[in-house]
Amino acid sequence: MDRFFVSPAVLQTQPVVLTGEQAHQVRRVLRLRPGERVMLLDNLGSAYDAVLLGYGQEDARFRIEGQRLASGEPATHLTLFQAALKGERFEWVLQKGTEIGASRFVPVICERNVMDDRRAVDGKRERWQRIIQEAAEQSGRARLPELAPCLSFADAVGSDAIPTAPKGSPSGDMPAEASAIRLIPWEGLRDDGGQSLQQVRSLREALAGCNLRVGIRIEVFIGPEGGFSDAEIGLAQNHRILPVSLGPRILRAETAGVVAAATIMYEVGEI
């Protein structure tokens, strides 16, 4: 069944009217006929079964026939602090991260970023929001992952305040004081060259040593095309972020976040 995220206000009137890109998708892309069903999601945890009544000149009209709790959300709250990447690479991370189950994305500017203009990054937010929504609808998510404002690496690692998940969501039922597991994959651990790094382990070993419980919060920091600098790894450690390895091969910047997210979701039982 096709799914569409809509504003809760849109659901307050009958019939429910979809306009713009959503109406175009219903009519021209999916070519739905009157009587066919879709699911409408309010991004608050509810799903609405809806029947297509027909089309206006630039809209599609639906009748709500039932309401229920939306499913598809992971209990684990995963935040991906991803260094901003050029071209379509960051968009790929958003799309695949949403499909895997990430709850929050934070674009980050690091020392070796190729894309280092925060205004340019923030200028892409509208397009990135659309990519997240399309991925969430396609993959059966019950809520849209949050896209946070762009941060410098120093601000990102220093952001000890964990955002409060919506009440009623799996992670929203966790105690407010629950702390996050904070991890930073780093290719320098392949041959650490005498680095005095403590508690270094593989990502899977790090997760195995944690209390992986329902609703746990995990933060992962992924570097840019040029990787993290030694100074950034040291700063991360000062903020109790654990350097981990993703294995013996060096992954591209857009691959590392997706691999880390998928591994985490597997280890916590979400895949």
List the helices and strands and how they pair.
Layout: E1 3-5, E2 16-19, H1 20-29, E3 37-41, E4 46-55, E5 59-69, E6 77-83, H2 89-100, E7 104-109, H3 118-122, H4 125-139, E8 146-147, E9 151-152, H5 153-157, E10 181-185, E11 201-202, H6 203-208, E12 217-222, H7 230-238, E13 242-245, H8 253-267
Parallel strand pairs: 1-3, 6-7, 6-12, 7-8, 7-9, 10-12, 10-13, 11-13
Antiparallel strand pairs: 2-5, 3-4, 4-5
Helix pairs in contact: 2-4, 2-8
Describe the protein in words.
The longest helix is centred in the middle third of the chain and has 15 residues, at 125-139. The protein folds into two domains: 3-69, Beta Barrel (Ribosomal Protein L25, Chain P), CATH 2.40.240.20; 77-267, SPOUT methyltransferase, trefoil knot domain (Alpha/beta knot), CATH 3.40.1280.10. The chain has eight helices and 13 strands. A hairpin with a 3-residue loop joins strand 4 (46-55) and strand 5 (59-69). The strands form two sheets. Strands 6, 7, 8, 9, 10, 11, 12 and 13 form an eight-stranded parallel sheet that branches. A five-stranded mixed sheet has the order 1-3-4-5-2. The chain has 271 residues and is an alpha/beta fold.
Oligomer: single chain
Helix content: 25-40%
- Give the second-level CATH assignment, the architecture of the largest domain: 3-Layer(aba) Sandwich
The average pLDDT is: 86
Task: Tell how many strands the DSSP assignment holds.
Answer: 13
Could you tell me the radius of gyration in angstroms?
20 Å
The separation of the N and C termini measures: 22 Å
CATH homologous superfamily identity of the largest domain: SPOUT methyltransferase, trefoil knot domain
For this structure, the CATH topology of the largest domain is: Alpha/beta knot
Largest β-sheet summary:
8 strands, parallel
Number of helices: 8
Q: Work out the count of structural domains.
A: 2
Shape: elongated
Question: What is the string of helix and strand elements?
Answer: EEHEEEEHEHHEEHEEHEHEH
Portion in beta strands: 15-25%
Spans where pLDDT lies below 50 across 5 or more residues: 161-167, 169-178, 193-198
Which structural category fits the helices and strands?
Answer: alpha/beta
Q: CATH class of the largest domain, anyone?
A: Alpha Beta
